[in-house]
Amino acid sequence: MTNVVAFIGDVGLKYGTIFSACFFGKFTSINNEGLVMGSVNMIIKFVFLFLIIISFPGISYAQAELEIPSNAKHEEPVPDENMGYGSDDVTFANDDEDNYYPSEEFNFEFSPYYWMTSLNATLKADSGDLAGSDVDLVSDLGIDKSKGFAGGELILKFWDVNKIRINYVSFDYTASKFIDKDFTFNGQKYASGTKADTNLHISSLLITYDIDFYRTRSGFVAFRIGAQTLATKTTIVTNDILSNTASVTVPIPVVGLSGRINIDRHFALSADVTGLSLDKGSLFDWQIFGTYNPVKWGGVSIGYRVITFSVDDSGKKGDIDWSGLTLTGSLRF
User: Fold this and answer.
1) Is 186 within 8 Å of 244 (Cβ atoms)?
2) Does the residue 85 lie in any domain?
3) Residue 105 and residue 330: Cα distance in Å, rounded?
4) Does residue 56 sit in the same domain as residue 116?
5) DSSP of 206-231, one letter per residue?
């Protein structure tokens, strides 16, 4: 527990003030130029303000633990026969038993996961001079609000503090419903009472480069930069004959933060946030999860993940978000 509190205090003291000042100025200036909206600014301000706040009790606690009593006696270390000062056996035991954390000791990690999502989605597609209607995919077209999907993440770690992450998940929905209101979608009008068969395919691909700007055995904090692509394709078939398809693919550059605190050898808490807001769209992806590592080469995690996506470009508009629990297994090499 001392390691965890000292880690939090150290991060807050060393980086909270510096990074909050840098990021406040940097992201505010970008926002004024119209490239980044206030969402990223608020998230980063919150993170580093949080680091500043929690630094003080963490530092005080760590200093108290390290305080040396005034009546303590100084004892010289006893030389070991073969290795000089200290026992080779003791040093090896400390490294393996007290300071070894499976979450950090790997070069390659593969993590398949199952995401139990809850969907909220509204789409709109214009065609020529015919304006489209806002269509709620759940209430208007009968798509399942709750559904589980499989995904996966690959992490390549090199030079100890550098990581390449690739995260992919694909969503497929089908529904059949007699619609109960008139609406227009992608140039075609749909009358109430028409049978509509809907197919919705959405995929998310996130590729980032992470660099740890703070790392100890107790955990790390990393800066993240990369790109996330969200591709959507919606097909509506009416009366089993007339088909209408609209699709949009939006690649968005993203920045973010990730971090982990190792509670002990087997348990760790992790969180990350990635995203960016531009003139024609925004994309945010965040998650928090706890990991149990029963063995060196693998572990299991449970967490909560949210993706929010918004686009308004060339007559196509969409607001989609997923949220829900994740169950993950990890293999490390």
Assistant:
1) yes
2) no
3) 13
4) no
5) EEEEEEEEEEETTEEEEEEEEEEEEE
Q: Are residues 54 and 179 in the same domain?
A: no
Residue 41: which domain range? Answer: 2-75
Q: Which alpha helices (H) appear in 67-143, and where do they start and end?
A: 88-93
Tell me: do 196 and 52 sit in the same domain. Answer: no
100 falls within a domain: no
Instruction: Let me know if residue 88 belongs to a domain.
Output: no
* Residue 147, both tokens: 């559904």
Give the side-chain half-sphere CA count within 13 A for 156: 5
pLDDT tens-place values along the chain, 333 residues long: 545 545 555 544 454 444 444 443 333 333 333 333 444 444 444 444 444 444 444 444 444 444 445 555 555 555 544 443 343 333 333 444 555 677 778 899 999 999 999 999 998 888 766 778 888 989 999 999 999 999 999 999 999 899 999 999 999 999 999 999 888 888 888 888 888 999 999 999 999 999 999 988 888 999 999 999 988 888 989 876 778 888 878 788 999 999 999 998 899 999 999 999 888 788 899 999 999 999 989 999 999 999 998 888 777 788 999 999 999 999 999
Asked if 151 and 36 sit in the same domain, the reply is: no
Q: Do 221 and 9 form a contact (C-beta atoms < 8 A)?
A: no
Are 286 and 173 in the same domain?
Answer: yes
Q: Which residue has the tokens 């304006």?
A: 131
Q: Are residues 34 and 159 in the same domain?
A: no
Total domain count, the chain:
2
Q: What is the pTM of this model?
A: 0.70
Say how far apart CA 47 and CA 289 lie, in whole Å: 17
